[in-house]
Amino acid sequence: MLTYHILTFGCQMNFNDSERITRIAENLKFKKVTDRFKADLVIVNTCGIRQSAEDRVIGIVPKLRKKRPNCIIIITGCSAHRKDFQKKLVSATSYFIEILKLPQFLKELAESKIKIVKQEQEKASSPANPADFFKISPLYSSPLSAYVPIMTGCNNFCSYCVVPYARGREFSRPSKDIMQEVKQLVTNGYKEIILLGQNVNSYQPEPSKNEKIVSFPALLEKISNISGDFWIRFLTSHPKDMSDDLIELIARSNKITNYIHLPFQSGSNRILKLMKRKYTIEHYLQLITKIRTKIPQAALSTDIIVGFPGETKEDFGKTAQIMKTVGFDMAYISAFSSRPETVADNLVDDVSEAEKKERKLILTEILEKTALKNNQSYLGKEVEVLIERQKPSLAKKHTYLGKTETYKNIRINLNANQSVKIGSFCKVKVTEAGIFGLEGTL
């Protein structure tokens, strides 16, 4: 019996991919181990968005090979197809396999049809069909929250982004498959359904007589009509495709959470054009105004890249001003990292690492101020909270951890006579507010 371990890097989509691979491995009677250094088979699900994620893999895999010389090491995910990445790991890796082909490969491995030869490219013959891959039922890692991909790939080709090269063009799952998965999750007691896509706004399944849902808002509304007590979240929206219909739907729905992640990347139209983002900052701010008007209680998060090639101090100043103007609850700020295959890889990376670090620090300081101010507005208010787990400390045995529907972490303090059930929704009165979290009483 093969023992296995999966290492996952990157986004929620990668984690969901690994949940599907876990299901395959379990169905094949492989035995999961928590220590990668004790596994016969290690699957490394890579991320190619930033160099730092690849550097972690480059650091881990050779050490694993040294300690486990006979281990089968498979590199898959968003970086596995790149020749430049493969060259750095070829001496330590058994196979580089496209993730859509991995299920068939593992099946052949279990049936002893694969001859294990280090440094050999995979020879599994399965077609790279995302529809077949999505039909694999994930082995969900959480009993409360589940990732449900509705589409994969991207057609936008932003100049810095590897997604269209790593995951291909957009593919939308049939709505009946998505509905079936969500209904089963709700039946099984899941309380948080997180719909995933590189750009959920682009959801548009292939037309057929059985496919009546042709847009993301239409799909979202149908999921909202499923009976049961659960929340719906989604990631990620693209500003050029964020529709009025979607904003209106969120405003009137009692299941779609009032949390919107809307990347703006740069406050400079000149830089946005170089990034090939296909919207202006004026358009972005109009969307924010619509959201604030229709959903005044909404929490907003964003993605930002600092130090993009050609970004001047004036360009960066515009980004900082947008941060102050919008007042985000959370921002994921990254320094530009040149990625192979992308258009931006041909641009001169002319902003120093020191300057990038300084710009990240400036934006982080702005974020801390706006996040704290936003959180302080919750003081004295009652909020609905999903109880996720108990704080692992005997000294705090009456303390639980959860999330608000606006995606804020909250610590809930109970007195000796109170009790809550993990996985339940509770009303909590907010008593304290920090930069990135709240505290309250049941």
Give an overview in words.
It is a single chain. With 442 residues, the protein is α/β, with parallel strands linked by helices. It has 13 helices and 18 strands. The protein starts with a strand and ends with a strand.
What is the structure about, briefly put?
Helix content is 34%, strand content 21%. By secondary structure, it is of the alpha/beta class.
Ordered list of secondary-structure elements with their pairings:
Layout: E1 3-8, H1 12-27, E2 31-32, E3 41-46, H2 51-67, E4 72-77, H3 83-89, E5 95-96, H4 102-110, H5 130-134, E6 145-149, E7 151-152, H6 163-167, E8 171-172, H7 175-187, E9 192-196, H8 216-224, E10 231-235, H9 244-252, E11 259-261, H10 269-275, H11 281-294, E12 299-306, H12 313-326, E13 330-335, H13 353-376, E14 382-390, E15 399-404, E16 409-413, E17 425-433, E18 438-441
Parallel strand pairs: 1-2, 1-3, 3-4, 4-5, 6-9, 9-10, 11-12, 12-13, 16-18
Antiparallel strand pairs: 7-8, 14-15, 14-17, 15-16, 17-18
The geometry reads as: globular
For the secondary structure, the number of strands is: 18
What does the main sheet amount to? 5 strands, parallel
State the end-to-end distance. Answer: 48 Å
Strand content: 15-25%
Briefly note the structural class of the backbone: alpha/beta
Average pLDDT taken over every residue? 93
Strand order of the largest sheet: 2-1-3-4-5
DSSP helix count? 13
Fraction in helix: 25-40%
Uncertain residue segments? 116-127
Radius of gyration: 23 Å
Which terms would index this structure?
single chain; 442 residues; alpha/beta; 5-stranded parallel β-sheet; 34% helix
